[in-house]
Amino acid sequence: MPYAHITGWGVAIPENILTNAEIAQMVDTNDEWIRSRTGIEERRIAATDESTASLAAQAAFDALEVANLSPADVDLIIVSTSSPEHIFPATAALVQDQIGATKAGAFDLSAACTGFIYALNMGAQAVRSGSIKNALIIGAETLSRLTNWEDRNTCILFGDGAGAFVLQASEKPGGVLSAVMRADGSGGDLLSVPAGGSKLPTSEQTLHEKLHFIQMNGREVFRFATRVMAQATREVVKMSGFELDEIDWVIPHQANRRIIEKAASNLKLPLEKFIINVERFGNTSTASIPMATAEALGKAQIKPGDKIVFVGFGAGLTWGALSVEWTGPLAEPEAPLVWPYRFEKLYSIYARFRSAALRVIRTIEGFVWGRKG
Ligand code: COA
Questions:
Q1: How far, in Å, is the centroid of ligand 1 from the Cα of 219?
Q2: Residue-wise pLDDT tens for the chain (373 aa)?
Q3: Which pLDDT value is given to residue 133?
Q4: Which helix (H) or strand (E) holds 9?
Q5: Ligand 1, atom nearest to 285 Cα
Q6: CB atoms within 10 A of CB 333
Q7: How far apart are alpha carbons 156 and 365 in whole angstroms?
Q8: Which atom of ligand 1 lies nearest, measured to the CA of 152?
Q9: Ligand 1: which of 147, 153, 313 to mutate, most ligand atoms within 8 Å of CB?
Q10: Quick check: is 283 catalytic?
Q11: How far is the centre of ligand 1, averaged over its atoms, from the C-alpha of 153 (Å)?
Q12: Cβ(152) – ligand 1 distance below 6 Å
């Protein structure tokens, strides 16, 4: 049975920074309150020409470059998101088209901030079963578009961004070791976007009541988060056959510094073992774990062989953890980059041309077929 290794990583971080001071000009809050209750100092907001799919595609392309794997070799794309481009089609299918992953299946996964852990586990299981070799696992959000910028309970928390991992099959032991995935739908109302789905379709009234925006019971979510973080971490470490003190890094969902501190204290682990960057990006939901991982890799904090636990929680309610023995790229370091990364501009023209050509062919086929009928 092959192992599922994380061999590439990438991020897409919007340039536009929104500081606490700027939010304080929009709602009744202040920098000191936000910092002390959440640890957040600033977050990124997607520009009007950026979207969940465009951020996801950028992160995915960078992750594939690290793995030196051509988009044409990707078998499966999973995009975890709570701010999909549309109800359907899946954002993952749009990413497939944008990066030219010609033979990949693609679907979205909705498990809110826990989604990246669920998606990574699903991708790893597909790799381990032998049914696929290469998968792209992406967490991408533009939550700023679902945020009520008049609601100080929520607008201080969220930010935009994307992160992606490449999973590859190899006979070499390591990679994804174990995972726990949990849910408790009885707490669904604690964090939700009530309208815009099939239960409450868009209407004048839903718009008037601002039901298309994130609604949250912060205190209850806080209580839930501090309980499940330590619990899921313990469970996943036990499943992987390690002891807690053998874990090199915990990479938690970046929702709130206080929640992470509480989890560290519950686990009796030093906070230094936790990767934290919530102060600069806020809560980017499902994108936060791959974004924090990529940043830690950029600082050379994580090394091949390190034992890592990813742990997250969020709307659903959902929570989960996944343990990994870190691998890094399987490609030989001296191997030349495959052509999409040597000629990036040319490749992006090719991918766009391919997409446009498929539309033209579909139009011509439709015309010919219509005449026959
Ligand atoms: N600025 C200033 N005051 C604020 C405020 C803001 N942005 N938001 C709320 N307040 C006020 C409240 O109105 C309340 O005032 P009151 O006592 O007069 O009623 C007071 O601050 C305390 O509110 P409370 O909700 O108890 O604050 P808290 O310490 O629980 O912090 C959160 C609020 C949202 C920061 C915290 O509950 C939290 O982080 N929860 C988890 C949220 C989360 O992570 N969600 C995503 C999960 S993936």
A1: 7
A2: 899 999 999 999 999 999 999 999 999 999 999 999 999 999 999 999 999 999 999 999 999 999 999 999 999 999 999 999 999 999 999 999 999 999 999 999 999 999 999 999 999 999 999 999 999 999 999 999 999 999 999 999 999 999 999 999 999 999 999 999 999 999 999 999 999 999 999 999 999 999 999 999 999 999 999 999 999 999 999 999 999 999 999 999 999 999 999 999 999 999 999 999 999 999 999 999 999 999 999 999 999 999 999 999 999 999 999 999 999 999 888 899 999 999 999 999 999 999 999 999 999 999 898 766 5
A3: 98
A4: strand 3-12
A5: 48
A6: 7
A7: 50
A8: 7
A9: 153
A10: yes
A11: 6
A12: yes
CATH of domain 3-325: 3.40.47.10
Domain boundaries, the chain: 3-325, 343-372
- Lookup result for tokens 């959902």: 318
- Say if strands 215-216 and 42-45 run parallel, antiparallel, or are unpaired: unpaired
Catalytic-role residue among 20, 113, 121, 155: 113
Starting at the edge strand found earlier in the chain, the sheet holding 307-314 runs 175-183, 318-325, 307-314, 249-252
Whole-number Å distance, alpha carbon 218 to ligand 1 midpoint, is 6
Q: Is 212 a catalytic residue?
A: no
- 113 a catalytic residue: yes
- Ligand 1 atom 9: the closest Cα is on which residue? 153
Rounded distance, CA 230 to CA 171, Å? 32
- In whole angstroms, give the CA distance from residue 109 to residue 105: 13
Atom from ligand 1 closest to the CA of residue 216 = 45
